[in-house]
Amino acid sequence: MAAAEGKRAAGIRRIPAGGRLVRACGTLALEALRHVVDVEELWLIEHEPEVAEVDLGDVAVRVAADHDSSLVAELIGEKAVAAGRRRGDVCFLACRDGTAVGCGWLTTSEYKLPKYGLRVAPRPGEGYHYGLYVAPGARRGGVAFALCVFPWQYARDHGCPVALGHISPRNAATPKIFVGRFGHRIRSRSRVLVLS
Question: Cα-Cα-Cα-Cα dihedral of 167, 51, 106, 121, to 10°?
Fold first, then answer.
């Protein structure tokens, strides 16, 4: 009792966790950090692709062989290529007129997204599609579409009838394409803090 009175006298009070002051302080803290961190929403989507053969236009996609590693490294860097190869993930390379214009990866193992503090653990029969990259000069030309459709077909043909991937609804076209056009289902939604 004497200790409690001593704390009150020193100005120490308990504030309920759901109190207005705590929420106000949290809001002020987020406002103060807005230039340093950002809140981003990611959707983990799933799809059972019944994708018939699709015309990919002038984009050719193939499984990147070991001798393609230098082409992929020109797009995403040697460190990223080495990490994917070490994990045993399948790399896909997109080319237009013989020039590498994009790449992406497929894994059946647990994958961590360090930037977001998330991890994905595909179940048996699932493949997680990640690391999609399209060279700036090749964007809005069907490369990303090809780098999605070809790996889905590959996954299905290699025992993974369910394709997983993360999308950001911040890019307005992404949900329209994946959820609308391709019929993906949203498995989960995550809100994460990321450094700006």
Answer: 70
